[in-house]
Amino acid sequence: MPNALGLERTDYKGAPSTLCPGCGHDSISNQIISMAYDMSLPMHRVIKLSGIGCSSKTPAYFMGRSHAFNAVHGRMPSIATGATTANRDLIAIAVSGDGDTGSIGFGQFKHLVRRNVPMVYIIENNGVYGLTKGQFSATSDEGQRLKYYGLNELPSIDLCLEAIIGGATFVARSFSGDAKQVQTLLKAAVSHRGTAIIDIISPCVTFNNAPDSNKSYPYGKEHEIPLHEYDFIPAGYVQPYEEITADYEEGQTIDVEMHDGSRIRLKKLDKGHDPRSRHQAITILEQAQREQLFLTGLLYYEEPRQVLGETLQLTDTPLTDLPKEKLRPSKDTLDKLMQSFM
Amino acid sequence: MVVELQTNVQARYNGQSEPVVNDFTLMVATKNGSGSQTSNEVLIRSLFRMGIPVGAKNLFPSNIKGLPTWYSIRASKDGYVARRAVSEIAVAMNELTAAEDIQNLPPGGVCILPKEWKWGQRREDIVYYEVPVKETVAAAAVPADFRDRISNMVYVGVCAQLFSISLDIIRQALLDTFGGKEKPAMMNFGVVERAYNWAAENLEKVDPFRFEPMNETAGKILISGNEAAALGSLFGGMTVAAWYPITPSTSVIDGVLDYRHLRRDPDTGKETVAIVQAEDELAAVGMIIGAGWAGARALTATSGPGISLMAEFVGLAYFAEIPCVIWDITRTGPSTGLPTRTSQGDLLFLYTLSHGDTRHIVLLPASVGECFEFGWRAFDLADTIQTPVFVMSDLDLGMNIWMSDPFAYPEEPIKPGKVLRQEELEAFISEHGEWYRYKDYDSDGIAYRTLPGTDHPRAAYFTRGTGHNEKAAYSERSEDWVNNLIRLHNKFKTASELIPQPVTDYDASKSIGIITYGSNDPAVEEARDLLAADGLETNYLRIRALPLTQDVIDFVLNHKRVYIVENNFDGQMHQILRMEIPQDNRHMVSLALGDTLPMTAQWIQAQITRLERQPVQEK
Asked: Do B296 and A327 touch (CB under 8 A)?
């Protein structure tokens, strides 16, 4: 069935994947395709960005009609910053990995969220370096063992916690085996105005899928604790809005309205988490770390604060579309300026 | 040369020669952060207002406050603005360096120093003027907060009186320096006037130095290279500047901040230039590459350590063919080196920056005028050739104030290069039946690109630093790799016709040639005059960009001996010439200074004279 742009889901596909069969990343690519199709994203305005690593190969596998940029290792955030600053109309969807984001690109990741660069930033987190054949990453579990590299004695970095502390305005965690949740969170993320971080645990079937690894399919399937059930309500969807209570009370749903008028409706489950509280988000993540809980869902959401282009007070017209007369002051301006240096 | 100069000055001091007019150097020694910059600027502006050609060199420490700094102001009736190793007049305001400052004076020199030091007058071959600095400031009833800084105005007043700068000129220069603000200008002027009057009443002038009005600066401007670079960039259509602070490049971006209002959208009051202070140089260059890819005209400014950090990303931009402009205001390296000393030591590194087989375009401005011109031209070149363009200036050119003709308005319209927007892409596909990102349709090595956001189903392509074929698809085939590099080489050849061509002064009858680049130009020009006066006629070629052009190669081959003058230790341009000129090039002689200071004519003259008068045996 064609979407609002008259496109089929297949139009949103990319090249065939060259990742290992069963890789969690491929299922995320599929959810990106579904999200883009459902949301009728104009592919010419989408830019797909990535760094280096298995995850960073995936932009080739979805939305073949969108421009893509496979940058250097860990430094995709700066490419995203430059491209979205140059052209504010672009919809940036970036894919990174735990090595790309948690190690070599950690600094750029933190500064990206601090600047609130408008984009979707997906971390396909498998806790291991795949392309170099199985080294620990910064998100590997403390105490984990790998065949060749032995015991990991260092604590793991929680990228969601880092994002919240760094000033991110949309932070979620999901599991590549939970397709529905991934897709709903992607829809909300692409509707968010600001940096939307989604840390998706995405098992590496080749190097890190033993049942005792908390980045494995068996572990994820058994231990995932979704914080909410979600409904994504697209912008313009006609329904009795008044029925939704804005105030949050135990047991009720929470509606988070996105910049474009769409909403994500959260129905709290066991943990009863309100993503609008930064304090609660940090507390629940610290608890999860302590108790080895695999919590998924929208962890933190902040009313849109100004995005980088607004901070820089840029023109409404994308800088890349400015007419030539706005790019070069007149000869008269130069002559007057020269007078002032005499 | 030094011996000759000493004899002359001694003769003058003994009252046996004419006054020395508009042809000497005055050096002010102070402590960093003491506010002497303002006083020095007032002196320069005063001479400039008097119509006297003037050059300035600020020798400052890597420090916020307290370490010694020397500022030398050269007046030259003949228009020479290069640094001179010797200053005839020392204004010694820093007790920690005064002994050395006095020692460095040539016989017949002049020393101005605070009376309250009670230093005595040890040297008998120089003139001492002792000035009551503290007393003068105290008497001027200046608010206590300003007293330390304003005390520098005492030497301005004394110098004005001793060397004949009128108070009226000083007042004007103060107003210029304070941007027309009457109050601070007049507060400072009060101290100048008091010191001037004190000198008139109490000092007996016994030295021969003085300034006289000329008419050589009318219609000219005074500006630093970094400010000129900023203006050139703003007139070049720059839309994104990302940077990380580093001496001596910071003032490029300060200039952009100071003048971006020239580009503010008059209709909305919003900015057409995004200025992002990045977290480091890696991010800065990443941002401009992302912006350049999206179609912006993007720039960063940095120095050697920043260039080192940018190496990987620049390789990506080169290989993925993304335009961007990188200013390297060089300082002395390797490593942190001397952050506030000048050098041309990044040349080789820039030329081949990044791993693998890379060659870059490097523009080499020699004047503030070229900083402006290359400022806008660099964007046209980057967009036309679809590659990073480096502009290598240096601390001397970038941070010192230079005289110049007013900058000429860009004579060419903005050139966006081979960009296919929606309709153009449609037309291109109807004509060729296809469009592939890295295919060489025009046999010039330059392919056509599209920008993200182009509303056309066939506009998209995949940008990558990995191996790719002409369709921009990932490829591990060796023939795809080789074909791509061959095209990049052809593109580089095309570039050599588009970059600024060398400036040459050539006469077939002369057998000695000098080649230089960048900020050495004034010293070389002066050295050529000195050599000619001594019977050594030279030809001259100034390289304005890499890659080398045929003109440079011909120039080298058309001389019996060619001196390559540059300000780094290893003779890096000499190495590039040897690498790129396949013919016998043993007649090239490297004159590489690299002593952390701006080039002097005297050094060049001494080297060439020595080698020409006592030629080394041919190998």
From this structure: no
Per-residue pLDDT band for A131 (boundaries 50, 70, 90) equals confident
B275 to A312: CB separation less than 8 angstroms, yes or no? yes
A119 — phi, psi (to 5°)? Answer: -175, 165
Pairing of strands B89-92, B23-31: parallel
d(CA B541, CA B562): 10
Residues with Cβ within 8 Å of residue A336, at least 6 apart in sequence: none
Q: Which two tokens stand for residue B304?
A: 């050697």
CA A65 to chain B, closest CA, distance in angstroms equals 5
Residues 6+ apart with CB under 8 A from A194: A116, A118, A168, A169, A170, A302, A304, A305, A307
Rg (CA), chain A: 21
Q: Of residues B344 and A259, which shows the higher confidence score? A: B344
> Which of the four pLDDT bands, split at 50, 70 and 90, describes residue B472?
very high
DSSP H stretches of helix in B386-418:
395-399
Determine the 3-state secondary structure of A129 from DSSP: strand
CATH code given to domain B503-613: 3.40.50.920
Q: Is the ipTM of this complex over 0.85?
A: yes
| Partner-chain residue, chosen from A85, A326, A328, that has the shortest CB–CB distance to B240 | A85
CATH number for the domain formed by residue range(s) B224-404: 3.40.50.970
- Threshold 0.90, pTM exceeds: yes
Q: Chain B: give the shortest CA distance to residue A273, in Å.
A: 34
Q: Which of A51, A121, A45, A41 is nearest to A88 (CA)?
A: A45
Which domains, ranges and CATH numbers included, belong to chain A? Answer: 9-311 (3.40.50.970)
Decide if pLDDT at A260 tops 90. Answer: no
Report the range of poorest mean pLDDT among A147-156, B154-163, B493-502. A147-156
Residue B143: cis peptide before it, omega within 30 degrees of 0: no
Contact across the interface for A47 and B452, Cβ inside 8 Å: yes
**B132-146, B259-273, B455-469, B508-522: segment of lowest average pLDDT:** B132-146
Over residues A40-75, the pLDDT tens digits come to: 999 999 999 999 999 999 999 999 999 999 999 999
Q: Which has the higher per-residue pLDDT, A251 or B489?
A: B489
Question: Rounded distance, CA B547 to CA B486, Å?
Answer: 16
Residue A198 is encoded by which pair of tokens?
A: 């989604």
CATH 3.40.920.10 residue window(s) in chain B: 2-210
**B248 upstream amide cis, omega within 30 of 0:** yes
When CB atoms are compared, the residue of B270, B279, B297 closest to A111 is B279
Compare CB distances from A75 to B242, B286, B453 and report the shortest one's residue. Answer: B286
CA distance B263 to chain A (A): 6
Backbone angles phi, psi at A18, to 5 degrees: -110, 15
When pLDDT is cut at 50, 70 and 90, the band that residue B520 belongs to is very high
Mean pLDDT across the stretch B576-588? Answer: 95
Read off the pLDDT of residues B25-77 as tens digits, 9 standing for 90 and up: 999 999 998 889 999 999 999 999 999 999 999 999 988 888 999 999 999 99
Which residues belong to CATH 3.40.50.970 in chain B?
Answer: 224-404
Distance, CA of A241 to CA of A245 (rounded, Å): 9
CB nearest A82 (choices: B282, B291, B451): B291
**Nearest CA among B549, B544, B543 for reference residue B495:** B549
B354 touches B311 (CB < 8 A): yes
Q: Regarding the domain delimited by B2-210, which CATH topology (the fold level of the hierarchy) does it fall under?
A: Pyruvate-ferredoxin Oxidoreductase; domain 3 (3.40.920)
Whether the Cβ atoms of residue B416 and residue A321 lie closer than 8 Å to each other: no
Residue A238 confidence (pLDDT) = 57
Inter-residue contact B282 to B306 (CB < 8 Å): no
Mutate which of B259, B287, B321 to test chain A, going by most A C-beta atoms within 10 A? B287
**Taking CB atoms and an 8 Å limit, are A66 and B460 in contact across chains?**
yes
